[in-house]
Amino acid sequence: MLISYRTRRSSNGVNRLDKKFIDLKNKNKKAFITYICTGDPDLDFTKKAVLGFDKIGVDIVELGIPFSDPIADGPTIQRASGRALRNKITISKALALVREIRKRSEIPLVFMSYFNPIFRYGLKRFAKEAASSGLDGVIVADLPFEESKALYEILKSYDIANIFLIAPTTKKERLSKILKRAEGFIYYISLTGITGARKKLSVELGKKLKFIKSLTGKPICVGFGISQALQIKKIKAFCDGVIVGSAIIDVIEKNIDKKDLTKKILYFTKTLIRATK
């Protein structure tokens, strides 16, 4: 059964995520999505990086909310989260950053968080402030779909997409339920295990993506393990976008004390963007 992709509207018109995927589809292009941890190495860099991403053609930016127990993340993002926490980065500061970015950019922004920081902040308070800041979507890495209804309904009431994760091990019955509720885009985890750059992706990846696309018309973006242009070229025919995180953070970590850090990040990101075209 094909589940139709419906555009969600707010008082400002079409939601930025929906508009982005509609525009990309009309141009027969794939989305390139970056992940960086908010406040790593500091908030000023995060702001410069996001604005730079917008200028070089990144389609969507995921902003990680640092957490002390990032169970889904590999060593690279764990270290980034640790650096951000030492800078005392909170949801409140991340939302303030979104407000600053919105003064200069309309690039779609998504928070990638664990549930604990959102729960402690308060679900309704978070949704209300996220909407007023200009945030477009939220991914909660450790919240099972079966326990997501309360957050989903609150986010939906403020026109914020609750983006769900699908793994290679997700059963068909559960998959169908997730696809029906999915908004923004579907985040397909390319491999089992934690985040981190990989040299090789599963040989079954294309087959899995073809199957999911036969069930839904909603955008499917692939993340976890993507670090090379060649990988992007191999999988782009089977999905609507790719997500790169750890590989970008590796570059941040290697150049963290250099004055041209932003320049190096943007140069590296450009080489990957080209592979999606």
Structural summary, described in words:
There is one protein chain. It contains 12 helices and 11 strands. The chain has a single domain (9-276), classed as Alpha-Beta Barrel (TIM Barrel). Helix 2 crosses helix 4 (91-102), helix 6 runs parallel beside helix 7 and helix 10 (229-235) runs parallel beside helix 12 (261-276). Helices cover 46% and strands 15% of the residues. With 277 residues, it is an alpha/beta fold. The strands form 2 sheets. A 9-stranded parallel beta sheet has the order 7-6-5-4-3-11-10-9-8. A two-stranded antiparallel ribbon has the order 1-2. Residues 1-12 have low confidence and may be disordered.
> What is the architecture at the second tier of CATH?
Alpha-Beta Barrel
Unreliable runs: 1-12
Radius of gyration: 17 Å
Order of helices and strands: EEHEHEHHEHHEHEEHEHEHEHH
Largest pleated sheet:
9 strands, parallel
Strand proportion, as a percent range, falls in 15-25%
**CATH topology grouping:** TIM Barrel
Relative helix content: 40-55%
- The span between the termini is 30 Å
CATH class: Alpha Beta
**How many helical stretches?**
12
Number of domains: 1
Structural class: alpha/beta
The pLDDT mean sits at 91
Q: Let me know the number of strands.
A: 11
What would you call the shape?
A: globular
Let me know the CATH homologous superfamily: Aldolase class I
The spatial strand order of the largest sheet comes to: 7-6-5-4-3-11-10-9-8
